């Protein structure tokens, strides 16, 4: 049975060129980038080139990129580092009810420490209104954290509009761009963000590596202590092989970004077109216009998510119920709760399909027809 992977929003396969680059570095460049001898200098060269490649990809400066273990650490560092560094200016933070748990659980921790967090609610397409950020702003607001594109439904937020609004406010602006990076053109200056989080494994890079963009002049209190690596911001010997693989994946996605946007959007609309042809009842969760190209979240009335996922898996289709970090949980998606309310049937019948480098139009069409067969069995009972 042919297996079709439609869960790229959870993680993507490592691109062969990125894997090849990693193996090359692992076997030939084992030096410590802090050492001054030739082995160390070679590791430093690889590290510096990777940092420049990634900085260029978002319009940042070399000194504004901090390598992390992934998106979760980047989110944690941005939020906790800012909260502690700016505590003398206020203890109010604005975020949203649809953030990744790496953000939401960090906010909950800060609330336990006496910080006041305002969680903005989305509309039924999953979109936050910029004017709601404006209404929530206070003189003691020190941080606004709004994700760029939602990992469950794909809705893109008005980041540039919010950034412009905050230009003359003391609050720092952070965006979790883990799902958007590599699929949407990002320019930190056009967006006017102070911090931006990214993870390599969403774009064909290895797991366990990511970065946090921190605009020069942004004050963060360090979370770890040790040496002077990562511009004295994140101590610890750098994971050079993974960083090199990350940079290679970045080069690949930057070259193919417009092409992939078009391809994944075509996958998304073809999938829905086939479901309509097959007379399957479904609803789109998210925003059809302002959306990430690779994420398709659908509600199938008269089905239940657990049975659907098992049936899809048995048919060789890998999909999910939303965030990979809550896989196996019986709790409904917090994103769908925020969008539709806690009593909505969509909480129990929604599936996320997400596309990536492992897919072709032929595979997507096959997956759509198999999905239609499965859904029809449930809906005809």
Automatic annotation (TrEMBL):
Protein name: cysteine desulfurase
EC class name: transferase
EC number per UniProt: 2.8.1.7
PROSITE patterns: AA_TRANSFER_CLASS_5
Keywords carried by this UniProt record: Iron, Iron-sulfur, Metal-binding, Pyridoxal phosphate, Transferase
InterPro entries in UniProt: Aminotrans_V_dom (IPR000192), Aminotrans_V_PyrdxlP_BS (IPR020578), Cysteine_dSase (IPR016454), PyrdxlP-dep_Trfase (IPR015424), PyrdxlP-dep_Trfase_major (IPR015421), PyrdxlP-dep_Trfase_small (IPR015422)
Family (UniProt): Belongs to the class-V pyridoxal-phosphate-dependent aminotransferase family. NifS/IscS subfamily.
Pfam families given in the database record: Aminotran_5
Annotated Aminotransferase class V domain residues: 4-365
Entries under NCBIfam families matching the protein: PRK02948.1
Molecular functions (GO terms): cysteine desulfurase activity; iron-sulfur cluster binding; metal ion binding
Organism for this UniProt entry: Weizmannia acidilactici
Cofactor: pyridoxal 5'-phosphate
Superkingdom in the source lineage: Bacteria
Reactions the enzyme catalyzes: (sulfur carrier)-H + L-cysteine = (sulfur carrier)-SH + L-alanine
């Amino acid at each position: 049975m042919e297996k079709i992977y439609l869960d790229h929003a959870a993680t993507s396969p490592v691109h062969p060129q990125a894997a090849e680059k990693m193996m090359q570095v692992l076997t030939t460049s084992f030096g410590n980038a802090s050492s001054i001898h030739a082995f160390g200098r070679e590791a430093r060269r690889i590290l510096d080139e990777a940092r420049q490649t990634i900085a260029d990809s978002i319009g940042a400066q070399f000194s504004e990129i901090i390598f992390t273990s992934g998106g979760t650490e980047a989110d944690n560092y941005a939020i906790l580092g800012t909260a502690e560094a700016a505590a003398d200016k206020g203890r109010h933070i604005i975020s949203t009810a649809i953030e990744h748990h790496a953000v939401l659980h960090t906010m909950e921790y800060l609330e336990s420490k006496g910080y006041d967090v305002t969680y903005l609610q989305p509309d039924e397409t999953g979109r936050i209104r910029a004017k709601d950020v404006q209404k929530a702003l206070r003189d003691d607001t020190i941080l606004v954290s709004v994700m760029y594109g939602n990992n469950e439904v794909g809705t893109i937020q008005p980041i540039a509009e919010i950034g412009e609004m905050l230009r003359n406010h003391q609050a720092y602006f952070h965006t979790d761009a883990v799902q958007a990076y590599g699929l949407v053109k990002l320019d930190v200056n056009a967006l006017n963000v102070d911090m931006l989080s990214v993870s390599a494994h969403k774009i064909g890079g290895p797991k366990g590596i990511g970065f946090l963009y921190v605009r020069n002049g942004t004050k963060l209190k360090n979370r770890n202590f040790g040496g002077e690596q990562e511009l004295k911001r994140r101590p610890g010997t750098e994971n050079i092989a993974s960083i090199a693989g990350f940079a290679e994946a970045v080069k690949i996605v930057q070259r193919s970004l417009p092409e992939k946007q078009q391809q994944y959007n075509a996958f998304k609309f073809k999938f829905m077109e086939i479901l309509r042809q097959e007379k399957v009842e479904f609803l789109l969760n998210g925003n059809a216009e302002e959306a990430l190209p690779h994420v398709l979240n659908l509600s199938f009335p008269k089905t239940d998510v657990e049975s659907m996922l098992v049936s899809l898996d048995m048919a060789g289709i890998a999909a999910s119920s939303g965030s990979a970090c809550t896989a196996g949980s019986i709790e409904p998606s917090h994103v769908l709760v925020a969008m539709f309310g806690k009593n909505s049937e969509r909480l129990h019948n929604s599936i996320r399909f997400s596309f990536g480098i492992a897919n072709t139009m032929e595979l997507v069409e096959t997956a759509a027809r198999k999905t239609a067969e499965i859904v029809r069995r449930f809906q005809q009972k």
